[in-house]
Structure formats: structure tokens, C-alpha cells
Specification:
The complex is a heterodimer of chains A (280) and B (317). Chain A has 280 residues and is α/β, with parallel strands linked by helices. Helices cover 40% and strands 10% of the residues of chain A. Chain A contains ten helices and five strands; from the N terminus they run αααβααβαβααβαβα. The longest helix of chain A has 22 residues. The chains are: A alpha/beta (280), B alpha/beta (317). The structure holds thiamine diphosphate and magnesium ion. The site of magnesium ion has 7 residues of chain A, from loops. Chain A: It comes from Candidatus Berkelbacteria bacterium CG_4_10_14_0_2_um_filter_35_9_33_12.
Chain lengths: 280, 317
């Protein structure tokens, strides 16, 4: 899978995020759009997985801790073939397995339940610890966010992982500088996350979360570390790809309306107006 | 839930306006929030008193701890989050830092109940009352509409001691009047049939609207007289009013948007098992988690609407 193919998948995932959020009429836009490149890099390049065997015991585990960004997870799982893309339009609807916040359902690749911030991080630590105890080869990827690091539970999990030298735990943080009440540095300053993790004895890298080369290289570097857990601080643009959503914390937790949906899809299909004709 | 000409209102708006109003009289009141300032309506207080607003970030345990320290020094902290996070995330801090020390901390659990809708089970607090009711010293209030929430907020600021206020996300029918009296610990009789009353419905929160409609329908269709008690304070329960009004009734019904375990139904059962053994019918969530869906769909699925209350009473009378 080359970079061009990855970007095509990421674009498709972003379009689906917009469509499913519009169809749901509620949900989170900014975080999911910002994390699309990372999810695609994981599922289409980096993970050892097989969508036809979602319970395969040797599979790499993906634990989503900032559960509110699940639209990007669902859209990526559908893109990868875990279930039909048509299901995406049932997001947040009664009877759907695509719950507003993830509900563990291995059949469709949804590895854990989350939503209340902080919990998924510790779940991931448990999954990685089990792998260590059982001498398994799988990696545990935990997706987290800057706002989530306000929670004390996250830091308890960080200390524990270093103590246990969970080298097969790779945490990827959506460092987009927003949370609900505003910019992270106004709500609860989180800079410099790199120094913080280093002080807790983790292996840390900071990357551009929209650069596939950097994402892939960072994960490969993380895998080469054998004595510590790894953290990748991914700088992302919240709302990435949709001009009027980018870097605006007001888009943390709302879906596009009809007009905004159209405009978002147009933005995504024309690279925010840089190319003239929509490629679809 | 909504009927076209039924007046609706937001309980959380009542909270925000009530807090602003009472804070004008008491400058010791401070507001704390965990990154949910607008949706809990704490923003109304924040705009009026920016210097008395404290943004704690997404850290509910810390918020309650800080509030207890502020209360030790005479402040009156109001702490707002969603009910699944406060008390959900910080029960131990509420138990020891707040209740054990009997400090004047007020906790607002917003977006409580199934009616949160599409966010799903993780965000639908159905156990908050159960988890708090066992804690000594703590008062628990579940107001039923905008006006009652506003009054409850003002009263809890005037009352000295720890209080939990539980409010929903959605607009709900206005069923009390602006001038109705609200006293913490004093239940209100909100309906009494003119014919002989055979049934008493005890409820708290917006589900009282459904109970009212069901009660009126029973009166019409089966000539069954009903008394409806708004037991907005779940702890301490207004035992006197409840005991007085179950006298001579055939059936006691308890309605709540909460698990049947540990909430108002349990509180009433505990009282009546000691003082007046009676048949008590629970209307509530039956030991299951919620799920994503529209609020009105969930209310039907989990059997909390007026029609379902009506039918359940009919088949039990
Ligand atoms: C324990 C807990 N408290 C509060 C919330 C409500 N909440 C949901 S998302 C969020 C902001 C989190 O920040 P971040 O993940 O950085 O948001 P994003 O970048 O996706 O906008 C908050 C406070 C929650 N989900 N869990
Ligand atoms: Mg963020």
C-alpha cells in the first residue's frame, strides 16, 4: 500500500465520517476528521489483522480511549471490510451496533467500550500486560487525546506501564489542542507532552499526524523499543480537510447540517478548493 | 414526550439561571466545571461572575476534592458535570471529602437518564441515585421541570450541607407553576382526583409528566381516582407526606428514569416495608444498560411512557 493509496482511503473515510454524522444528527466532527490519517495508516499499513477473523488471537489490538471519536474508527473498520459501509448510516440509531460511544463488539472489530475519558487507556494497559504475561507477539495500540490527559487515571496508567516495561504498548495521542470548553492550553495546559512522557520513562516521539511517512516511521521506531512503553504525540488539525471546521473547537461535538454536509463533501473532494472538479 | 401545545423548558436552564440569581445574593458561591461549561449551563454563571468560575478540566475527582477544600474555607462550591461523571467518576471523593466531612458542596449531575439519547449507554446515568443514596449526610434532589430546577438550585444554595441535583439534557414539559412552593424534603401533591383515590403514584423528575397523563387517563377510563406525589427530594424522603397519602389506597406506583434498583422505588419500598407493607409497582429501567437512539424511542423501548405506565397499572390493579 503506497502513500497515494493511503490518502485515497483517508479521503473516503473522511467523506464517510461527514455522511454518517449528518445522518445521525448528533456526534463529534473535529476529532474524527483529525485522526483519519492515523486510523488509515494503522489499518491499511501497520496492523497485523485479518478482518475475516476478527477474533484471531494473534491480532494486534486497537483500544480507543477517547471514545467520542468513534466515527473515524467505524468508518475505517468499514473501509477495511469489517462490515458493510451502508451500516455507517445507522450510527447512533436505535438497534445499531454503531453506538454513539463504542460498545465492545469483536465481530465488527470494535475491541473495547469507552466514552468516559481515561478508562480506555487503562484497558489498553491491561490488554498489553496480558500479552506480556502470555508471551504473545501482538502489539496494543491505544488511541488517546490531549483533553483526555486531564484525567488522573491516564497518569496512573502511564506510571504503571513504565513500571511494567510494557514495550508492546504503543499509545498514539491526538494532540489537536482543542477540547470542549476551548483550546487545551486555556482549559488545562498540556504542553510539553513530550517532556511529561519522558519524565515518566516512556519512549516518546512527536510527529505530524497527517504525514503518512512520519506515522509509519514512528510506529516502526516504537516497535524497535524493547524496554519501555511508547508514545507517539501526533500533531493533528481538528476538522482536517473541511475548511470551516479546521482548528475550531466549536466543532468538537456537533454534526454538520445538510448545507454543511454538502460543503464538507465538496471541500474533501476538491482538497478545499485547490482542485477544480470533484473527483467523485 | 412532547405534546404540541405543551409548554416545554430546559431543567439545566433553570439550574443556570437559579445559580446566577442566588449568586447575586451570596458572594461566597463559586462554580466549578469539568470541560462541560456550556452544556451544563454553568456558562450562565460564568458570564455573570467570571472571577468566581473555576475551570478544572476533564478531572471530576479533582473537582470534588477542590470543592471540598473550598467549602472548608467557607465557599459554597457548585460542581457541574454529567451525572455519569459526577457522581460517576468521583463517588469516593463525594463520600469522604464531601459527605464524611459534611461540607457545603453542591454537585450537579446533568444529562441524567435515558433521555440523553444517541450518546448511548456510557452517557446515560441510570445508577447515580442508587450509588449516592447510601451515603450519609447527602441530600438528593430530582426536580421535574425548569421552574422546579431553578427553585431547587436556589434552595440548595441557602441550605447548608452537601446536595446532589440530578437533571436531564432534553427539554421537558413544564408541570409546575412559577409560584408553587418548593421546600427541600417536602413532597408536593401535584394531582388528586375528585373521586375516591385508589391509587397513589409517587415520582420524581420529568417522568412525572407521564405519570400525570397516565393518572388522568385511568381516572377517565376506569373511574380510578389517583393521587400523584412529586417526591423531588429522594433523600431525605418525605415520609410523612407519603405515609399520609397511601392510607386506604389499593396500589402504590413509583416512577423514575433510573434503575429500579436503589432509586426512588427502593426508597419508598424501604419506608413502606417498615411502616405500612403495601403492594408497590415500580416503573423504571429493569436492570439493563441503555443504548443509542432518539429519546422518545428509548422511552418507549424501556417502557417509561404514559401509555405504558397506564397499561401496567391496569394489569396490576
Ligand atoms: C470522564 C469524562 N468527563 C467528561 C467527558 C465529556 N467529554 C467528552 S469529550 C471531552 C473533551 C476531551 O478532549 P479531547 O479528547 O481532546 O477532545 P477533541 O480533541 O476530540 O475535541 C469531554 C470533556 C467524558 N467523555 N468523560
Ligand atoms: Mg483534543
Amino acid at each position: 500500500m503506497n502513500i497515494e493509496q493511503l490518502s485515497l482511503h483517508a479521503n473516503s473515510v473522511r467523506e464517510n465520517i461527514i455522511k454518517m454524522l449528518y445522518s445521525a444528527g448528533s456526534g463529534h466532527s473535529a476529532g474524527p476528521l483529525g485522526m483519519a490519517d492515523i486510523f488509515v495508516a494503522l489499518y491499511f499499513k501497520l496492523l497485523k489483522i485479518d478482518p475475516s477473523q476478527p477474533r484471531w488471537s494473534e491480532r494486534d489490538r486497537v483500544i480507543l480511549s477517547n471514545g467520542h471519536i468513534c466515527p473515524v474508527w467505524y468508518a475505517t473498520l468499514a473501509e477495511k471490510g469489517y462490515f458493510d459501509k451502508k451500516e455507517l448510516l445507522n450510527l447512533r440509531k436505535i438497534g445499531s451496533f454503531l453506538q454513539g460511544h463504542p460498545k465492545r463488539n469483536l465481530t465488527y472489530g470494535i475491541e473495547n467500550s469507552s466514552g468516559p475519558l481515561g478508562q480506555g487507556f487503562s484497558q489498553a494497559v491491561g490488554v498489553a500486560l496480558a500479552g506480556k504475561i502470555d508471551k504473545k507477539d501482538y502489539y496494543t495500540y491505544c488511541l488517546s487525546s490531549d483533553g483526555e490527559h486531564n484525567e488522573g487515571q491516564v497518569w496512573e496508567a502511564i506510571m504503571f506501564s513504565a513500571k511494567e516495561k510494557l514495550s508492546k504498548l504503543i499509545v498514539i495521542i491526538d494532540r489537536n489542542y482543542i477540547q470542549i470548553d476551548g483550546f487545551t492550553e486555556n482549559v488545562m495546559p498540556m504542553d510539553e507532552m513530550l517532556d511529561k512522557y519522558q519524565a515518566f520513562n516512556w519512549h516518546v516521539q512527536e510527529i505530524d499526524g497527517h504525514n503518512f511517512m512520519e506515522i509509519i516511521e514512528a510506529v516502526e521506531n516504537a516497535k524497535a523499543v524493547f524496554d519501555r512503553p511508547s508514545c507517539i504525540i501526533a500533531r493533528t488539525i481538528p476538522g482536517k480537510g473541511v475548511s470551516f471546521m479546521e482548528n475550531d473547537f466549536n466543532w468538537h461535538g456537533k454534526p454538520p447540517n445538510k448545507e454543511e454536509e454538502m460543503k464538507s463533501l465538496h471541500d474533501l473532494r476538491t482538497l478545499k478548493g485547490r482542485i477544480k472538479s470533484e473527483h467523485q | 414526550m412532547s405534546i404540541s401545545n405543551q409548554k416545554m423548558g430546559l431543567c439545566r436552564q433553570g439550574f443556570g439561571e437559579g445559580l446566577k440569581e442566588v449568586a447575586q445574593k451570596n458572594d461566597q458561591i463559586v462554580g466549578l466545571c469539568c470541560d462541560l461549561t456550556i452544556s451544563t449551563k454553568m456558562d450562565i454563571f460564568k458570564s455573570a461572575f467570571p472571577d468566581r468560575f473555576i475551570e478544572v478540566g476533564v478531572a471530576e475527582q479533582n473537582m470534588i476534592g477542590i470543592a471540598s477544600g473550598l467549602a472548608m474555607e467557607g465557599k459554597v462550591p457548585f460542581c457541574a458535570s454529567y451525572a455519569v461523571f459526577a457522581p460517576g467518576r468521583c463517588w469516593d471523593q463525594i463520600r469522604v471529602s464531601v459527605a464524611y466531612q459534611n461540607l457545603n458542596v453542591k454537585i450537579i449531575g446533568a444529562h441524567a437518564g435515558l433521555s440523553v439519547g444517541p450518546d448511548g449507554a456510557t452517557h446515560q446515568a441510570l445508577e447515580d441515585i442508587a450509588s449516592l443514596r447510601a451515603i450519609p449526610n447527602l441530600t438528593i434532589i430530582v426536580p421535574c421541570d425548569y421552574y422546579e430546577t431553578k427553585k431547587a438550585t436556589i434552595k440548595m444554595a441557602e441550605y447548608s450541607g452537601p446536595v446532589y441535583l440530578r437533571i436531564p439534557r432534553e427539554e421537558t414539559p413544564i408541570i409546575t407553576a412559577e409560584n408553587d412552593i418548593f421546600e427541600i424534603g417536602k413532597a408536593n401533591i401535584i394531582y388528586q382526583s375528585k373521586i375516591e383515590n385508589k391509587i397513589v403514584i409517587i415520582g420524581a423528575g420529568p417522568i412525572l409528566f407521564e405519570a400525570l397523563e397516565a393518572g388522568k387517563a385511568l381516572e377517565k377510563s376506569h373511574s380510578l381516582g389517583v393521587t400523584i406525589i412529586n417526591s423531588h427530594t429522594i433523600k431525605p424522603l418525605d415520609e410523612k407526606t407519603i405515609l399520609e397519602h397511601i392510607e386506604g389506597k389499593k396500589l402504590v406506583v413509583v416512577c423514575e428514569e433510573h434503575q429500579k434498583t436503589g432509586g426512588l422505588f427502593s426508597a419508598v419500598s424501604e419506608l413502606l416495608s417498615q411502616r405500612k407493607p403495601s403492594k408497590i409497582l415500580p416503573i423504571g429501567v429493569d436492570d439493563s444498560f441503555g443504548e443509542s437512539g432518539k429519546p422518545e424511542e428509548l422511552m418507549v423501548k424501556y417502557r417509561l411512557t404514559k401509555t405504558q405506565i397506564y397499561r401496567k397499572i391496569i394489569s396490576n390493579i
